[in-house]
């Protein structure tokens, strides 16, 4: 019981520290902006550890963070193998294929207005559907290995990417297009010099949404059958063995991969769309 | 179609009311291209059935002593479906659309399965797609309502407390980049081991998935009133509660509905994935899994379309609600 009281004390301390930082003299600084969420996260982790130890929660319900960290450190080899299988082979290749294909289709659809008017409502509709349900079909077609996972990812990222790119290509003003016409620019020149750069904020929005979708697709597709490695495979089998520390370690891998992937795309976006108002301030 | 139509637009004066004529014109403007795209998809699907199912059609034909082009089965095994279909066009086309467990069932086969599962079975039967859809949808809705309510509450807290804003908001944003659905199997099994099963574990996953989009959207929405509007309420001497109920909440409605549409789609995916790991016996996810175990492709496709129809219905319902509500509030 003492540890639980300690957890409550830790919570009070963490909250007091954050309140002092957030309302104190350092409220606007970048350091405070970074410190407050970190303190909050650390407080939650500390409470998790103390409550699990204090109430002696069994491992099969909730392992303590320290146990998860131990498992993570002890089984980095397995985790790396799963990461390569699910992220590098399945998610990343599918992401690349899906985004490039959607981009190409969007450019064609933008060239022919009839196609754009037909594809956009269909694409919007498809983007809201539970496409991850195609996983069992694609696993049946492409086999158990990473090719089927890449196929699921392709289908999942295609429509959000298509809709965003088409919307972006339509985002130039009449004045800007008229200016290009007075320069005597051809369709291709207008596309490359005006409309593609103007579409980049939308394209990157699609790319960022797709990072999460790619990981979800690759992981869920592994629930329908996979070789004996992969994040989704390890999660479902470890859950079956009640090895929850391993499950949490895999979740940590997936979370890290997702955040870094998103961060990488956001960093590229910052360099490409430096002119956009949201990045200028 | 939110663009305001110019009064002098072409066709605006046709018919009894310009608005009706414009709407009809707008329908034709999108309906024809959409129909063309859908027809093209259907045609491609029918076309794809031929090579996809060629292996099975040729095998059946060879067993029925019809002459097929590479005569030995071992020669055929290495060939792709497309090559087989090209060398035996007649057999491949004839056999493509009637197979029982086709690799790619034809659209009419899926439609027949969907029809048999919805209209052809009594609702209480465990082969009825309406019954399975309801099992999934009830968990989705329960989780969606809880997730949305919690998300709105947290967003209100974040807007009013600087500490909560600075400590919780970055994590809420980071959580959007994490494939949280990976947690689904664990939630199911852990709740099962403490004796909770049935609808609640799936609803927990659904709630969890709809929670973060609502938080992020509602924080943006509650902050959307400008300083002029806030200042006006301050000059009226409005309390924080009054500012919340009279300005912030009404102003956040468009953002709320945008998040709700994302949230319900995510909730449905959560409920479907939540049915996968425990081998649940009911629900659309269970139908998908059972279909993939036994190679019942038509069953998979029918369940997939049922899920798509459910998602489309719920998003469409929210959209209609949004239009009606925002119309009454004079926001569009």
TrEMBL record, chain A:
By sequence similarity, the record places it as follows: Belongs to the binding-protein-dependent transport system permease family.
Q: Which UniProt keywords apply?
A: Cell membrane, Membrane, Transmembrane, Transmembrane helix, Transport
UniProt name for this protein: NitT/TauT family transport system permease protein
- Provide the transmembrane region boundaries: 32-52, 92-110, 122-144, 150-170, 202-226, 246-268
Q: Which PANTHER family match?
A: ABC TRANSPORTER PERMEASE PROTEIN MJ0413-RELATED, ALKANE SULFONATE ABC TRANSPORTER-RELATED, MEMBRANE SUBUNIT
Residues forming the ABC transmembrane type-1 domain are: 84-269
Subcellular location per UniProt equals:
Cell membrane
Report the main location listed first in the record.
Answer: membrane
Gene Ontology cellular component list = plasma membrane
- State the species of origin: Roseivivax sediminis
Q: Which GO BP annotation is one of this protein's? A: transmembrane transport
Automatic annotation (TrEMBL), chain B:
Residues crossing the lipid bilayer are 26-48, 134-159, 171-193, 199-222, 255-280, 300-321
Pfam families assigned to the protein according to its UniProt record, in alphabetical order: BPD_transp_1
This entry carries the following GO cellular component terms, namely:
plasma membrane
The protein's matches in PROSITE patterns, at most eight in alphabetical order, are given as: ABC_TM1
Q: Set out the biological process GO terms recorded for this chain's protein.
A: transmembrane transport
User: What's in the keyword line of the UniProt record?
Assistant: Cell membrane, Membrane, Transmembrane, Transmembrane helix, Transport
Q: What is this protein called in UniProt? A: NitT/TauT family transport system permease protein
Where can this protein be found?
Answer: Cell membrane
Q: Which organism is it from?
A: Roseivivax sediminis
Assign the protein's first listed, main location to one coarse class.
Answer: membrane
């Amino acid at each position: 019981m003492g540890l639980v009281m300690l957890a409550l004390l830790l919570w009070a301390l963490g909250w007091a520290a954050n309140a002092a930082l957030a309302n104190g003299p350092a409220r606007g600084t970048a350091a405070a902006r970074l410190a407050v969420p970190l303190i909050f996260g650390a407080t939650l982790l500390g409470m998790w550890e103390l409550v699990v130890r204090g109430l002696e929660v069994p491992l099969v319900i909730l392992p303590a963070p320290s146990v998860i960290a131990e498992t993570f450190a002890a089984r980095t080899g397995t985790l790396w193998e799963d990461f390569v299988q699910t992220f590098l082979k399945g998610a990343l290749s599918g992401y690349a294929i899906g985004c490039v294909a959607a981009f190409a289709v969007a450019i064609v659809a933008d060239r022919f207005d009839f196609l754009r008017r037909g594809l956009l409502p269909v694409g919007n509709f498809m983007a809201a559907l539970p496409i991850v349900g195609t996983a069992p079909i694609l696993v049946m077609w492409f086999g158990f290995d990473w090719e089927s996972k890449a196929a699921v990812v392709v289908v999942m990222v295609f429509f959000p990417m298509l809709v965003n790119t088409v919307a972006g290509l339509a985002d130039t003003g009449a004045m800007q297009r008229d200016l290009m016409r007075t320069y005597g620019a051809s369709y291709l020149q207008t596309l490359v010099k005006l409309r593609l750069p103007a579409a980049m904020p939308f394209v990157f929005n699609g790319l960022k949404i797709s990072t999460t979708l790619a990981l979800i697709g690759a992981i869920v597709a592994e629930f329908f059958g996979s070789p004996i490695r992969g994040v989704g495979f390890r999660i479902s089998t470890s859950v079956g063995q009640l090895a929850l520390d391993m499950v949490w370690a895999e979740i940590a891998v997936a979370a890290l991969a997702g955040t870094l992937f998103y961060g990488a795309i956001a960093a590229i976006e910052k360099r490409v769309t430096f002119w956009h108002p949201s990045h200028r301030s | 179609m939110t663009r305001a139509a110019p009064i002098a637009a072409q066709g605006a004066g046709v018919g009894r009311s310009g608005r009706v004529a414009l709407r009809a014109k707008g329908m034709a403007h999108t309906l024809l291209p959409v129909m063309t795209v859908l027809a093209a998809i259907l045609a491609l699907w029918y076309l794809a059935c031929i090579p996809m199912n060629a292996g099975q059609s040729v095998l059946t034909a060879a067993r029925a002593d019809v002459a097929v082009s590479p005569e030995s089965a071992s020669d055929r095994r290495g060939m792709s479906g497309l090559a087989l279909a090209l060398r035996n066009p007649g057999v491949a086309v004839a056999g493509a659309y009637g197979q029982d467990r086709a690799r790619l069932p034809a659209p009419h086969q899926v439609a027949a399965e969907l029809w048999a599962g919805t209209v052809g079975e009594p609702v209480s039967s465990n082969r009825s797609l309406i019954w399975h859809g309801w099992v999934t949808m009830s968990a989705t809705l329960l989780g969606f309502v809880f997730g949305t309510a919690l998300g709105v509450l947290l967003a209100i807290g974040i807007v009013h407390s600087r500490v909560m804003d600075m400590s919780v908001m970055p994590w809420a944003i980071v959580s959007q980049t994490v494939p949280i659905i990976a947690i689904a199997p664990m939630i199911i099994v852990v709740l099962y081991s403490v004796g909770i099963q049935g609808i609640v574990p799936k609803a927990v996953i659904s709630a969890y998935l709809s929670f973060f989009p609502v938080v992020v959207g509602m924080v943006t929405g509650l902050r959307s009133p400008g300083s002029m509007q806030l200042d006006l309420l301050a000059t009226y001497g409005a309390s924080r509660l009054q500012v919340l109920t009279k300005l912030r909440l009404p102003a956040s409605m468009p953002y709320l509905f945008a998040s709700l549409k994302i949230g319900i789609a995510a909730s449905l995916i959560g409920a479907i994935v939540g049915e996968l790991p425990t081998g649940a016996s009911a629900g659309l996810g269970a139908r998908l899994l059972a279909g993939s175990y036994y190679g019942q492709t038509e069953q998979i496709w029918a369940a997939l379309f049922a899920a798509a129809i459910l998602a489309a219905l719920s998003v469409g319902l929210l959209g209609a609600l949004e239009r009606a509500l925002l119309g009454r509030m004079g926001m569009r």
